[in-house]
Amino acid sequence: MAMAVKSVYEMLDNPHRTDEPLVPFYMLQALHGILPQFSSRDEHGHLEQQDANECFSEIQRMLLKQIGKDVREFFRGRYQVRQKCLECEDEPIQNTTEEFYQLSCFLSPEVRYIQSGIKEKLSGEIEKTSTILGRNANGRRNVLIDRLPAYISIQMVRFFFKESSQVNAKILKDVKFPMILDLRDMCTPALQEKLIPQRTAVKKEEDAKIERMRKQKMEGTDAKSVEDDGTPLPFSFPDDEGSNNSGFLRVEGRSSNSGHYVAWVRIDEDKWAMCDDDHVTPVTSDQILKLSGGGDWHCAYVLLYGPRIVKEYPELKDGKENLVEQTEAIENMKTN
C-alpha cells in the first residue's frame, strides 16, 4: 500500500506530466488486493459503493503498519481516561490511557457545532464492573486528550441503521465546523499548560500581520504586493515529534456523500479544489464552510485537520530607517 501511494505522488510530481487526468490504476489494484472488501461488485459486475471513512481508516492503518513509528506519531493521539463508580464511594477510581487515530462527532439534536459533538461522547454515564459490589454498577467516564497529533481526522457520524426500513439512513443535520479548530478545552490541564507558549506565538503572529496591514495602509501599498517575511515555527514539541504544540488545527480536506463521494482538498490558503471523479473545480473557503449540511448541497462526512503553521515575524522598522537602508543600497549599486 505504501508503494502504491508513493507511485501516485510520483505521478503528481512528475515535471513532464501533461494536463491529461491521472489514472491511479496501481493504487486501485493495491487497494483491492490488500483490502478485498473494497472490491465487491453488484449483480451487474460494477464496483459497489463503499464507505469513505472505512476506506480511509483501513488505508491509514495499513500505511502506519508498513511505514512505522516515524509516521505514526503524526496521527496518534492519546486519551487520559478516568472512570468512577457512582454507586460505591469506596470503589477505586480507574485511571488509564487510550490511543486514538480519529475523533467522532455525534449528531444529536442538541449539537450545532463540531466541538460540542466531539465533547458530548468523550464523557458520560457508563455501566462498569464493581469489584466491591460484585456486580455491574452505574459509573461515569471522563475523557481528556493527553496528546494531540499533528493530523486528526474527524468523522461526522451521519449514518444510522433505520430499523423500520432496514437501511442505513443519512442525517442531513447542519453542524458547523471552523477552518481553524481549537481543541484546547478538551485537553488535560497538563497539556493545556504546555500549549501556552505556541498559543502566545499565535497571538504575536496575528499582531504582526495587523501591524503590517496598518503600515501598508499608511504607505498606500497594495496589501497583496507585500512580501510575507515571517519564518515558520515548529508545530511539534521538541521532545515529541509529530505532536501538536498549539491545540489549533487547520482544515485540510474532507469527503462528502451525496450519491457518491467527493473530495475537497486545500491547495493553498483560500484556494481549494473540488474533486468529483475526474472533474476538478476550484472553490473557496466560503464554499467549504457550506458543507456543514442541512440542505440539498453536499455535506461533510470526514474532515482532515492538519497543524496550523505559526510564523515569527521580525520587528518592523520605521519609515526613516527604511529610507536610510534604501539610500545606502542605491549608493552601493552606483559604487559597484
Automatic annotation (TrEMBL):
<keyword id="KW-0645">Protease</keyword>
<dbReference type="InterPro" id="IPR028889">
    <property type="entry name" value="USP"/>
</dbReference>
<dbReference type="GO" id="GO:0070628">
    <property type="term" value="F:proteasome binding"/>
</dbReference>
<keyword id="KW-0833">Ubl conjugation pathway</keyword>
<dbReference type="Pfam" id="PF00443">
    <property type="entry name" value="UCH"/>
</dbReference>
<dbReference type="GO" id="GO:0004843">
    <property type="term" value="F:cysteine-type deubiquitinase activity"/>
</dbReference>
<keyword id="KW-0378">Hydrolase</keyword>
<feature type="region of interest" description="Disordered">
    <location>
        <begin position="213"/>
        <end position="239"/>
    </location>
</feature>
<feature type="compositionally biased region" description="Basic and acidic residues">
    <location>
        <begin position="213"/>
        <end position="227"/>
    </location>
</feature>
<dbReference type="GO" id="GO:0061136">
    <property type="term" value="P:regulation of proteasomal protein catabolic process"/>
</dbReference>
<dbReference type="InterPro" id="IPR044635">
    <property type="entry name" value="UBP14-like"/>
</dbReference>
<feature type="domain" description="USP">
    <location>
        <begin position="1"/>
        <end position="308"/>
    </location>
</feature>
<keyword id="KW-0788">Thiol protease</keyword>
<dbReference type="GO" id="GO:0016579">
    <property type="term" value="P:protein deubiquitination"/>
</dbReference>
<dbReference type="GO" id="GO:0043161">
    <property type="term" value="P:proteasome-mediated ubiquitin-dependent protein catabolic process"/>
</dbReference>
<protein>
    <recommendedName>
        <fullName>ubiquitinyl hydrolase 1</fullName>
        <ecNumber>3.4.19.12</ecNumber>
    </recommendedName>
</protein>
<dbReference type="InterPro" id="IPR038765">
    <property type="entry name" value="Papain-like_cys_pep_sf"/>
</dbReference>
<dbReference type="InterPro" id="IPR001394">
    <property type="entry name" value="Peptidase_C19_UCH"/>
</dbReference>
